[in-house]
Amino acid sequence: MRILGLDPGLRVTGYGVIEKRGSGLSYVASGCIKSPDGELPNRLKNILNSVYEVIRLYAPTEVAVEKVFVNVNPQSTLLLGQARGAAICGAVLSDLPVSEYTALQVKQAVVGNGHAQKEQVQEMVKRLLKLPSNPSADAADALACAICHAHGGLVGAMSTKGYRVKGGRLVK
């Protein structure tokens, strides 16, 4: 199974591709899609086309995308949602199945703590994929999303009905 992880953003969308063979994970590629300044439709088109190109280059079989968190600024949340939609459309146009995970689920699956810092995520991604150095924050988040999916989503795979998050963990 080859998984494309996406960490959508309007300015920078991180991507990471990993391969899962049995219980082993291996790094394939990662990077950042940078959107130029300008009108929103052109920026969204850039994200869509770039995700489509990453899919063409690395031929993933599944896609994992980080869900949008609600920000203090509703305008920022709306823009992030549109960028996320453009990234998802790139996957859907390629007829790939898309799974979604919250940042809490991704961090819990990769670091073991849903409130882990970005540096902790980068370090664990480096260790899990045996990379020579830490990937950029956006690429690390995308790789972490792919790792979460490869591990069955862990928290995401079980029903969370009747649970709440406390201290980065699900509790009744």
Description:
There is one protein chain. This protein is an alpha/beta fold and 172 residues long. The chain is built from five helices and seven strands; from the N terminus they run βββαβαβαααββ. The chain has helices at residues 40-58, 74-93, 103-110, 118-128, 137-150; strands spanning 2-7, 12-21, 24-34, 62-66, 98-101, 164-166, 169-171. The strands form two sheets. The chain has a five-stranded mixed sheet. β1 and β2 form a beta hairpin. α1 (40-58) runs parallel beside α2 (74-93), α3 packs across α5 and α4 (118-128) crosses α5. The longest helix is centred in the middle third of the chain and has 20 residues, at 74-93. The protein is globular and about 40 Å long. 38% of the residues are buried. Residues 155-163 have low confidence and may be disordered.
Please write out the topology.
Elements: E1 2-7, E2 12-21, E3 24-34, H1 40-58, E4 62-66, H2 74-93, E5 98-101, H3 103-110, H4 118-128, H5 137-150, E6 164-166, E7 169-171
Parallel strand pairs: 1-4, 4-5
Antiparallel strand pairs: 1-2, 2-3, 6-7
Helix pairs in contact: 1-2, 3-5, 4-5
